[in-house]
Amino acid sequence: MEYSPPPLFKQGPSALARLIFFVVLALALLISDARFKTLEIVRGVLGAGLYPLQRAALVPRDLFMGAADLAVTSATLRAENTKLRERNLQLSQQANQSALLGAENAHLRSLLQLSQRATIQSIPAEIQYDTSDPFTQKVVIGRGSQQGIQNGSPVVNEDGVIGQITRVFPLQAEVTLLTDKDQAVPVQIVRTGLRSVIYGTPKGDSLDLRFVPISADVQTGDELVTSGLDGVYPPGLPVAKVVRVDKQADTAFARVVCVPVAPVRGARQLLVLHYQNDVPPRPEEAESAADSAKAAKAKKPAADKAGAKGADKAAEKGSEKTADKPASKPTEKPAAKPAGKEPAHSTRPTAPAAPVKPATPAAGQGANP
């Protein structure tokens, strides 16, 4: 008769041994999967098999979220539609006013005989990547010299100035952003018309309006636009807004801190402007160029006259020498040594006997005393 315990009371390995075994197995599976990706296939098969169950379990949540999104989206779309309609009305009114102002401006310029402002051409571009130098504020766009990009062209977006083209390649171009420490833009305050120059800062998070006297009327919130006096940026482009004005008694200039109007680092699509300013050169440069041209013209005739005088003097001296030489040689030699008394053993060549012909009467007188 067998006295084995019933199956309900059979224990097998102890609980501690099972715990140690499963812990070691879990660690081995984790290490093998992390190092050698041994369970990648198993995970993919299990994920594909359980995906329908997951989607079925998430159906109630998706229905609730979809209904909520639909309600929020419809309300948001209604609000945005209302704002866009109001904005459209404002823009249409501004367009009508700008057309009227443009016609009036053209009439006044023709009346005052002023030249028309040059038209501005734009080329759309997109930022590809930032430059590798972390200490500069520069980006690279996907347009180059083959697309008509020129060095020094201003770069803007729908909000305002972004930067300037500083290097051009055949298919790409480098843009120095407005907040770069080496970038400067001539600006003026819209409210007062005060002109100055705005610079970037080393940190690249703000702008510094320099050369502003303490007595100048500058307030927080003033808008700055391009003045157009440099001939690079068209006038009237939004640049920055004043956020802080520090006036100290021991300095001659106020410290004016500004922030860019356009999102310099957040912009993706840009416009490269091709602006040609037909401004005549400065009077000093024109006068200096005219003076140098006159001096060159004055020096050229003087040099020609001096050369002609030198040539005439050289010709006169040469003619005098050539005139003296044939007259002295034939008269002196026959008088010193007559032809009849010259010894026969002399080594002098007989060729000079020909010019002695004019002196033959003197030789005859010597032969017939």
Which terms would index this structure?
about 375 residues; alpha+beta; Thrombin, subunit H; 6-stranded antiparallel beta barrel; 5 helices; 12 strands; about 40% helix; disordered C terminus; MreC_beta-barrel_core; cell shape
Structure description:
It is a single chain. This protein has 369 residues and is of the alpha+beta class. The chain has helices at residues 15-36, 40-57, 59-112, 283-336, 360-367, and strands at residues 120-130, 138-141, 154-156, 161-168, 173-177, 184-189, 195-200, 207-213, 223-226, 238-246, 253-260, 269-275. A hairpin with a 4-residue loop joins strand 4 (161-168) and strand 5 (173-177). The longest helix is centred in the first third of the chain and has 54 residues, at 59-112.
Structure summary:
InterPro entries: Cell/Rod_1, Cell/Rod_MreC_2, MreC, MreC_beta-barrel_core. This protein has 369 residues and is of the alpha+beta class.
